[in-house]
Design brief:
By secondary structure, the protein is an alpha/beta fold. The protein has one domain (3-11, 24-117, 151-184): 3-Layer(aba) Sandwich (Rossmann fold). It contains seven helices and five strands, in the order E-H-E-H-H-E-H-E-H-H-E-H.
Length: 187
């Protein structure tokens, strides 16, 4: 049984932490755009001074590369009968749907799951401030307030076969729900 899980939410909402817990429990391939951004920063001179906490021309350029890479990787893994968790899969319904369209291209049924990481705005701002304080050039709070907050589209229950809400305190429930989904598919 194949499963495609999208983990979505704002920056600092706990997506990567939850994703790491999930992949420690299940045989899933992790697809994460930050890995590619970090590779570009460390390996390509043009991107070496890029800070992806706030949009700019270099970020937009890198974003195009990241999108193509993630999409192609998901497509290839699905064609190889692999199950996938995409960490940071899109803040808009349209962006999330692009991944699910890849799953629909296959003739067999691939179960789709969205895990939405939700966090109280005050806690989110506290976490973003900590990120900003690590390096002076980071602008995570500005990114959230000026761009992401307005663009973010909460998940609708009809977007995937299963929609789960992660609230920082229910990771064990999320892991159990994924196990249940996978067990029910094998029957």
């Amino acid at each position: 049984m194949q499963i495609l899980i999208l983990v979505i939410g704002h920056n600092a909402s706990g997506k990567s932490t939850l994703t790491k817990k999930i992949i420690s429990q299940f045989d899933l391939n992790r697809v994460n755009g930050d890995v590619i951004r970090d590779l570009l920063i460390s390996s390509v001179k043009f991107y070496s001074d890029m800070h992806y906490s706030y949009p700019n021309k270099k970020n937009e350029s890198a974003g195009k590369i990241v999108f193509v890479f993630r999409r192609q990787l998901v497509k290839e893994l699905l064609s190889q009968n692999q199950s996938i968790i995409v960490d940071g899969a899109g803040i808009t319904k349209h962006g999330r749907n692009k991944y699910f369209l890849l799953a629909k291209e296959h003739r067999k049924k691939i179960k789709t799951v969205i895990i939405e990481a939700v966090l109280d705005e005050n806690e989110l701002l506290t976490r973003l401030k900590k990120r900003d304080n690590k390096k002076k050039q980071f602008r995570w709070i500005n990114n959230y307030k000026e761009i992401r907050k307005e663009r973010y589209e909460p998940v609708e229950n009809t977007e995937a076969d299963f929609v789960l809400k992660y609230n920082q305190h229910n990771s064990e429930e999320i892991i159990q729900a994924i196990e249940d989904i996978m067990l029910n598919q094998k029957k």
